[in-house]
Amino acid sequence: MRPLTEAETRAVFEKLGKYIGENIQLLVDRPDGTYCFRLHRDRVYYVSEKLLKGAVSIPRDSLVALGTCFGKFTKTQKFRLSVTALDFLAPYAKYKVWVKPGSEQSFLYGNHVLKSGLGRITENTAQYQGVVVYSMADIPLGFGVAAKSTQDCRKVDPMAIVVFHQADVGEYVRSENTLT
Amino acid sequence: MAFLPSEPPDLHVIHQRIKSNMEVLQDFKVKREEGRTRQEYLALLRRDMAAYYSYSDFLLKMLMDIFPLPELINFLEANEVPRPVTIRTNTLKTRRRDLAQALINRGVNLDPLGKWSKTGLVIYDSSVPIGATPEYLAGHYMLQGASSLLPVMALAPQENERILDMCCAPGGKTSYIAQLMKNTGMILANDSNAERLRSVVGNLHRLGVTNAVVSNCDGRQFPKILGGFDRVLLDAPCSGTGVISKDPAIKTNKDEKDILRCAHLQKELLLSAIDSVNATSETGGYIVYCTCSVTVEENEWVVDYALKKRNVRLVATGLDFGKEGFTRFKDRRFHPSLKTTRRFYPHTHNMDGFFIAKLKKFSNSIPKPQKDEEPAAEAANPSTGPEAVMEPQPKKKKLEGSKIAQAQKKLQPALKSGQSLKGQRRPLKAVRPSPHKSHAQVPNRKKQRVKQNGQ
C-alpha cells in the first residue's frame, strides 16, 4: 500500500474528470475528514485517513481491500474505473442518462444502451462524454460513454447505440471474482 | 408390536414404528411391553429415526442428548423444510418502506420479519430472482438469514468504534455492523479463506460500506496483528448442525472428530478474540461469540472454557427471545451464568439453529494457567477423551501436545482398571443423570459409571 505517484494521480484524476468534471475537488476536500487515494496491488482505493491508520499494521500480503476500490491500473499503466466507484461517481455526475424500465435488465447484463431504451438524457451531452446511467427510479446502475451527442440522439433510429457500456452493477453478480 | 426384526426399509413402516415407540416412551410405565428396557426402546427408536431421516448414528445420538424426544422429532422435521428467505434492508442506501414498495412493484410478496427487527423482510414468493433485482445490485438489501441478524444486534456496535469481525465471509454481518455504525469508525473484516473474501469485498462495495478494511489472516494470530478493539464479533467456523436444512450433507458427514476439531479451533479463536479487545474501552469491551451449530461441545463448552481462561464474564445478549443456554449437560457442569446465552432452533423460532453468547471483558490481564490443575481438568471434561481424538491435528503447539500425552497416559490405565478413575474425573455425585438424559448414555460409559460407583 502506497500513495499514488504523480503520473498515477494524473491518470486517475483524468479518468474521474470524464464523469464528474471539476467535482473531483469535492472528493478530495471533504468536510468529514481527510480522504486520500492509496495504491495496493495495482488497485486504487479511496480511503479516509482514519481508516488508513488502522490498516497500516496489517501485513501487505494479507490486506485484501480497504475503503472503496475505485479501479485498477492495467499492465500498460492505464487506469480503469470499476463499478465499485459508482457510489462516488453518481452523486457528482455531470451528465446522466436514464434508461427505461424495459431495458434496465439489458444494461445490467452488460449491453450497450440503445435508443429504444433511452428514457432521458442530460441536455448538451457531447459525443464520447462519460455518463452515469440511472434507472427511471433514479437508482444508479452503472456508467459508460455517450456514443452520440444529445442532438444526434433525437435523430437516430431506435436500434442505434446511444451509450457505450463500461461498467454496471450486474458485475457484482456476473464477475464477483474479478471485481477487486 | 414394536420389535419386528429389521426388514427391507419400508419408510412407512418405520414411521409408524417411530410414532408408536415415541408414545410408549412418553408414558413408559404404563405402555411398555413387559421385559423390554428403556434402553432397548431407545436404541430401536434411534435406529429408526436415523433410517427415516437419514442421519448418521453419531449425530442422532448427539441430538438425542440435546433435545427431549418430542422436541427432537420437531427438530428433525424442521430440518426437512427450508427456512423462509429473508432480506435485510441496507439503511445506508434506502429505507425499509421504500424498499418494500419497490419490491412489491416487481411482484414480490413480502412482510416485515418480526417485531424485533426494524430492517428485516420475509419473502414469501417472488416472480423475479430475488438475488438479481436492480435493487439488489444497487445494494439496497442483502440476502441474509434471520438468525444472522441476531449476533450483530447482540453486539450492538456504536458509532466511531473499532470493531473486529473475525470470520466475516460472506459479509452479511459485517455490512450490518457498518450500517448500525452509519459508516463511521472502523471495521476490520477478517477471514482465513481468501476465496470467500471475494464475496465479502463484492458485498461491502455493493452495499456502500466505506469504513471496512478486509484482511486475510488466521484469526488465531489476532492480537499480534492488531488489537485494542472496542468490540469483536466471532462467528466461529462450526460443524453447521443448525443449518441442516440448508446443507443436508451435514446429516451424514460429521463425526465426533469433526465436532471436537471445531470445538478446539473455536476455543483458540475465542481466546484470541478476547485478547484483541480493549477492556478499558469507554463504550465497548464486548465480545459476541456465535455459531450456527446446536451442539454443546461447540457452544457452552467453548464459552465455559473462555470464562475459566480469561477475565471475562457473560452479560445479557439484549435479545428477548430464544432459549437459555445449558448450564448442565450430561456429566458436564458449566458456569451458572451460561444461562444468559441464547440458543435459537429451527423448530421453535423458524430460523437457522444458532447460539449467541455476549461476553464483557473486565480486565486486560491474562490470568496465569494453574499448572497442575490443567491436564486433570482437560481429561475430566470430555466424556470420551477428545484429546485422544484430536491429537493428530497438525497445528497443535508442542507444549500442549506434551500436556495431552500426559493426560492420555493418565487416562488410559484409568480406563483399563478403573482404579485411578476417581482422581481423574469430576466428583461423581454430580454425574447422577436425570431420568430424561439417562437414555442417551452409551453402554460402555454406563459400565464405567458402575465401576466408579463400586469404588
- pLDDT averaged residue by residue of chain B: 81
Distance separating the two termini of chain A: 15 Å
CATH topology of the largest domain in chain B: Rossmann fold
Estimated radius of gyration of chain B: 24 Å
Function (chain A): Required for proper 34S pre-rRNA processing and 60S ribosome subunit assembly.
GO molecular function (chain A): RNA binding
Keywords (chain A): Nucleus, Ribosome biogenesis, RNA-binding
Subcellular location (chain A): Nucleus, Nucleolus
Helix/strand layout:
The complex is a heterodimer of chains A (180) and B (455).
Chain A: E1 2-3, H1 6-20, H2 24-28, E2 35-40, E3 43-48, H3 49-55, E4 63-66, E5 68-73, E6 79-81, H4 86-89, E7 96-99, H5 101-108, E8 113-114, E9 118-121, E10 130-135, E11 140-146, H6 150-155, E12 161-168, H7 171-174
Parallel strand pairs in A: 7-10
Antiparallel strand pairs in A: 1-2, 2-3, 3-5, 5-6, 7-9, 8-12, 10-11, 11-12
Chain B: H1 11-26, H2 28-31, H3 38-53, H4 57-66, H5 69-78, E1 85-89, H6 96-105, E2 108-112, E3 120-126, H7 134-137, E4 141-143, H8 150-155, E5 162-165, H9 172-180, E6 186-190, H10 194-206, E7 212-215, H11 222-225, E8 231-235, H12 250-253, H13 256-275, E9 286-291, H14 300-309, E10 312-315, E11 323-324, E12 328-329, E13 332-333, E14 342-344, H15 346-349, E15 354-361, H16 373-380, H17 386-390, H18 398-417, H19 421-424, H20 435-438, H21 443-454
Parallel strand pairs in B: 5-6, 5-8, 6-7, 8-9
Antiparallel strand pairs in B: 1-3, 1-4, 2-3, 9-15, 10-15, 11-14, 12-13, 14-15
